Prior knowledge:
Layout: E1 9-13, H1 40-52, H2 55-62, H3 66-80, E2 85-88, E3 91-94, H4 96-124, E4 128-134, H5 139-149, E5 156-162, E6 176-179, E7 188-203, H6 204-210, E8 223-227, H7 235-243, E9 248-253, H8 256-264, E10 270-273, H9 274-277, E11 284-286, E12 293-302, H10 309-324, H11 326-330
Parallel strand pairs: 1-5, 4-5, 4-6, 8-9
Antiparallel strand pairs: 2-3, 6-12, 7-10, 7-11, 7-12
Helix pairs in contact: 1-2, 1-3, 1-4, 2-3
Amino acid sequence: MRRSPPPRIKFRSxxxxxxxxxxxxxxxxDVGAAVSEPEWSDFKILxxxxxxxxxxxxxxxxxxxxxxxxxxxxxxETAVGAALIVRSGRELSWTTAGRTLLAAxxxxxxxxxxxxxxxxxxxxxxxxxxxxxxxxxxxxxxARFLLEDQAPxxxxxxxxxxxxxxxxxxxxxxxxxxxxFRPTEPGLVFRQVxxxxxxxxxxxxxxxxxxxxxSAAELPEHDIVRYVDALKxxxxxxxxxxxxxxxxxxxxxxxTECAAxxxxxxxxxxxxxxxxxxxRSLALVRVFPEPVAYSTGYIVYHETVRDLWRxxxxxxxxxxxxxxxxxxxxxxxxLN
Length: 336
């Protein structure tokens, strides 16, 4: 049996593309008799109220008069038989029933947007857009490997977004995420894909001036580039804190890219993920030949999108790319 060629994929960074915003239903200017069942457009009122914090701000966000928001809110309260918000002047607070429906609206929004986007893509014969959130340090290396592996004509357009914070997949902030910690939020589907080694490194300038420590026991005699306390439970920073002793901390940083550039400047010895240690433009030198700690990486997406072809396909392409380059991420191979 002749096998179909693998799907082709390209990437676009989040600064080069506007994400498709699905418009589901509309807000009319008038409301007639109370309806017996809530409508999706009524749930959009709740989302706008949550974002704006007031009826006036919700109307502005939806492009309608505030009185329309009030009427649609009243219609929804009538339909469900419960008050949803409590107004105090221009501010509002949510009742228990209101919070319940708001949570439902937040869950419905990505489902509707994903469904509409897939239908529109099929109708136009357009590329299938998939938003991938990754730690910023990974963006350049993932982009490079995707470009090397894929042909220019594409079936999927991968929107690669570097995010320091974990995006909310349940709210549709991204379709897929690469996370360097085990997910704990409910409703997430995840798969372990890589082990990322942490490399102790320094600049050649620093080592020429201060010498190269023969082992971790000599680190207290050197200047250290450490991470802020918020990252102390991450494998690499945790190892460095456990082994630096009374070493002088020259600089504290809050992310791996900043650490790599600070170490490259000659500020001291530090730890970075293996693929950053192999970045030729930084010219970092391994202090110890092997990684000193490891972090596990997971491909993650929400269960509501697990059956979408574009998500499954993109996740498989990402998995194959990461596993193909596993030795580089592990720290046992060098970047060509």
